[in-house]
Amino acid sequence: MIVKNEEAVLARCLDSIKEVVDEINIVDTGSTDQTKSIAAKYTSRVFDFQWVQHFAAARNFSFQHATKDYILWLDADDVVTVENQEKLQHLKSTLSPATDAVSMDYLLSFDEQGNSIYSLRRNRLVKRQRQFQWIGAVHEYLAVDGTIVHSDIAINHQPLSHDASRNIAIYEQLLEAGEIFSPRDLYYYANELKDHSQYAKAIDYYEKFLATEQGWVEDCIQACFKIADCYSALQNDKLVIQSVVKSLTFDAPRPEACCRLGFYFMEQYKNEQAIYWYTQALSIQEPDHTAFRNLTFTTWLPHLQLCVLYDRLQQFELAYKHHKQAKSFAPQHPQILHNEHYFQQLFSK
């Protein structure tokens, strides 16, 4: 782990993993709170690293201190549930020594019931002897190859706070120093600009990223969606839909693209066309180890919209069918609660 000023969450993370791992290595990058003293309660292997505005450098330094056969990396605001602790224990006892890396789900957001709604895959466990390296000053990634196992283990990301300006500041320092951004850097810098409401500049960098034609296909598709969001914020509806359609040039339609197209037609009261696209969103089968998963677009949202669309067409049985499906996924969603009341009144008449 690399940490800095994580006194609020570090013990929570280490408590969730201490019984599973054989060694804990903590690299502190300049804490001024109680982070290091908390870490010392769990391990004597606490090391200092002078922060150089480069996350990959810090993570590579942390990997140098590992002594076991495999390295598991976590962030301080991550949590391993009891269920996943057990899965990790099982993995330790069954993992083939020929395995170079193990990918795991990274659960990033949750609904009211605690169910994951947005996740991605990360290479979490790697063979130390392979000496895999981290790459990137910000939004760093671990470059792996060889035999990779896609496990069903999940790590929960549960931050209590977020330094919103840290990453964009690093990127802008790199630009000022004359750094030439890689396609990945262009994409993630655009994300930071979008998150800071610099929409026109974000669009420019997303377009620069796409123009390289070297981006990962999933990032290219997401860039199209994010450009659409920027144009929406700038109230340019024509370019919103053009950006969504552009995502179809990279691969088969993603559920999110289908829902965005459905919404476009829904807003124009082109109900049949909207029904087509929301139905498509529900029909797409994503593999279990897909890189990004946002269950919103394959569960309650398309069902909710189909409920509204069929109600418009006065096909009330179909509308209610989709309402029940939406309710099964998000029973406390305000719009679904509103629809529940609506159908009670409708059927009482």
TrEMBL record:
<protein>
    <submittedName>
        <fullName>Glycosyltransferase</fullName>
        <ecNumber>2.4.-.-</ecNumber>
    </submittedName>
</protein>
<keyword id="KW-0808">Transferase</keyword>
<dbReference type="Pfam" id="PF00535">
    <property type="entry name" value="Glycos_transf_2"/>
</dbReference>
<dbReference type="InterPro" id="IPR011990">
    <property type="entry name" value="TPR-like_helical_dom_sf"/>
</dbReference>
<keyword id="KW-0328">Glycosyltransferase</keyword>
<dbReference type="InterPro" id="IPR029044">
    <property type="entry name" value="Nucleotide-diphossugar_trans"/>
</dbReference>
<dbReference type="InterPro" id="IPR019734">
    <property type="entry name" value="TPR_rpt"/>
</dbReference>
<dbReference type="InterPro" id="IPR001173">
    <property type="entry name" value="Glyco_trans_2-like"/>
</dbReference>
<feature type="domain" description="Glycosyltransferase 2-like">
    <location>
        <begin position="1"/>
        <end position="89"/>
    </location>
</feature>
<dbReference type="GO" id="GO:0016757">
    <property type="term" value="F:glycosyltransferase activity"/>
</dbReference>
